[in-house]
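hey
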């Protein structure tokens, strides 16, 4: 046994830190599928905005689409968390991939035929958002069952490396090319194909490699409502959890809607850029996040990890103000790199803390509460973005979102008990 351990340890040391979790076949398949579908999500970021602004040049239309996408996701998250603790998480993710892929096929057909209207997009993205509410908790709770505990920092760093590389670099860049070649309809079609690839990877995974998920599926201990209440009791008993959820909720209220709605408007209508320019801006955010993932994955995070999380997230939110000050696409690109790089660094530490501190049997429910509270006000953020921008101006809205969001985020670091779990887990390398 000792020889086996030493062999694994030597193999682990030969791999760069970020690649260590890829030793496991199941995690490799999950990673491959996720990477592919994230490229599709990056395509969607550009294609959806470009299609909506082509149909209606006003930010109000994009606000409605963002509201329709986010509200159903919020509505299904808590139920999705309980379901992910009771049933096979892989199958839950597979189902959501199939639903979202079907939505994108419908969008592609409507767009390529020239029949698409804003109300079509609103209705279809609502279905997409509802399915997404089941995916996040299932994914978050599946990862710790596929990766050794000692490799969680590297697994989360790899996630934050792949996510921006695909979602903000490869995806938007490819989206700009596809839109220039065949319009938004072609981009939607390619996005649908990425979900088919992701679903195939999930089918190839062996669910027996995730015993905790199988056990939960085979022997549920109580009703859905009882299990939900157990998860909520755990969250209420830990300030570092519910405090961070609430902090994220207010920060997202302030900057998610303005960023998602107004950034494409600034590129297209104020700077007179192209879909490629928007792709470049989003891709620069990916560069920043990738750099952060490489650094944190190799070096780890400080022992005072809650302070690290909040300082990086505060600076990331403050950088949103740079969108309001930018006078060129390159200025937007620099601000986007800072926003996403700092956000990724804090997210790696946050995900690792949850995975090490939260009991595995509660992980799906805690993750769903995290998602639910964090994005609960995002629909309102989308709904308010256009009216606020009309009242005070697009640039002032972005500037205020960054400054106010940063102030709110940093204030929560000093909530009594927020830094109490720092001695329970060591995440330094």
């Amino acid at each position: 046994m000792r020889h086996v351990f030493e062999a694994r340890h030597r193999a682990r040391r030969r791999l760069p830190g970020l690649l260590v979790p890829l030793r496991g076949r199941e995690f490799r398949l999950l990673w491959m599928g996720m990477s592919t579908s994230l490229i599709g999500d990056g395509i969607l970021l550009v294609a959806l905005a470009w299609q909506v602004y082509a149909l209606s040049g006003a930010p109000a239309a994009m606000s409605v689409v963002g509201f329709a996408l986010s509200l159903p996701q919020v509505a299904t998250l808590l139920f999705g968390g309980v379901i992910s603790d009771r049933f096979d998480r892989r199958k839950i993710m597979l189902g959501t991939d199939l639903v979202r892929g079907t939505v994108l096929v419908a969008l592609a057909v409507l767009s390529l035929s020239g029949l698409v209207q804003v109300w079509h997009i609103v209705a279809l993205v609502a279905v997409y958002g509802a399915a997404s509410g089941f995916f996040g908790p299932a994914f978050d709770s599946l990862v710790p069952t596929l990766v050794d505990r000692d490799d969680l920092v590297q697994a989360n760093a790899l996630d934050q490396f792949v996510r921006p590389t695909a979602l903000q670099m490869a995806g938007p860049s490819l989206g700009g090319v596809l839109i220039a070649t065949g319009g938004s309809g072609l981009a939607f079609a390619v996005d649908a194909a990425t979900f088919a690839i992701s679903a195939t990877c999930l089918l190839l995974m062996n669910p027996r490699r995730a015993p905790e998920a199988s056990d939960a599926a085979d022997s549920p201990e109580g009703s859905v409502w009882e299990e939900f209440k157990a998860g909520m009791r755990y969250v209420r008993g830990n300030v570092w959890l519910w405090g961070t959820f609430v902090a994220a909720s207010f920060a997202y209220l302030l900057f998610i809607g303005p960023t998602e709605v107004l950034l494409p408007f600034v590129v297209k209508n104020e700077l007179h850029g192209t879909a490629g320019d928007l792709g470049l801006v989003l891709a620069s955010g990916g560069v920043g996040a990738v750099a952060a993932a490489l650094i944190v994955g190799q070096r780890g995070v400080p022992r005072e990890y809650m302070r690290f999380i909040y300082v990086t997230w505060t600076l990331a939110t403050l950088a949103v103000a740079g969108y309001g000050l930018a006078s060129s696409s390159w200025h937007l690109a620099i601000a986007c790199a800072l926003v996403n790089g700092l956000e990724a660094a804090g997210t790696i530490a946050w995900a690792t803390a949850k995975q090490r501190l939260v009991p595995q049997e509660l992980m799906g429910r805690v993750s769903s509460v995290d998602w639910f509270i964090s994005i609960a006000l995002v629909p309102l953020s989308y709904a308010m973005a256009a009216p606020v921008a009309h009242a005070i101006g697009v640039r002032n809205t972005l500037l205020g979102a960054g400054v106010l969001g940063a102030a709110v985020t940093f204030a929560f670091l000093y909530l009594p008990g927020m830094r109490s779990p720092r001695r329970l887990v060591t995440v330094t390398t």
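The chain has one domain: 20-423. The radius of gyration is 21 Å.
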